[in-house]
Design a protein that fits this description.
The protein has two helices and six strands, in the order H-E-E-E-E-E-H-E. The chain has about 80 residues and is of the alpha+beta class.
Length: about 80
C-alpha cells in the first residue's frame, strides 16, 4: 500500500449541512451533491443542490466564507465570466 492510498483511506468524506426552503427538511450532503458558481458580484455567486427529500432545486447565495468552505471541501466550482 502506498503512502498516498494510506492517506486517502484515513480521510473521512466532507459532509455539508443544508436545508431546503420548500419542505424545510435538514440534511447532510456530500461535496459531489453541491455546485458552486462564482460570479463577479455577490448576486452572481451562489451554491446549489437538489433537495434529497422533495426534489426541489435549491439555490442560495454564497459569501466569502461559504465559498472558502465549499472549495476547501471539494465542491465543484464554476467560475462565471462576464463578456465586456
Amino acid at each position: 500500500m502506498s503512502v498516498m492510498s494510506e492517506l486517502s483511506a484515513s480521510v473521512a468524506p466532507v459532509l455539508f449541512k443544508a436545508a431546503c426552503p420548500d419542505c424545510r427538511c435538514r440534511f447532510e450532503l456530500a461535496a459531489g451533491a453541491l455546485r458552486l458558481a462564482i460570479g463577479a458580484s455577490r448576486r452572481t455567486t451562489f451554491y446549489s443542490f437538489t433537495c434529497p427529500e422533495c426534489g426541489s432545486a435549491v439555490r442560495k447565495p454564497a459569501g466569502e466564507r461559504i465559498v472558502e468552505l465549499l472549495t476547501g471541501g471539494g465542491v465543484r466550482t464554476l467560475r462565471l465570466h462576464t463578456t465586456a
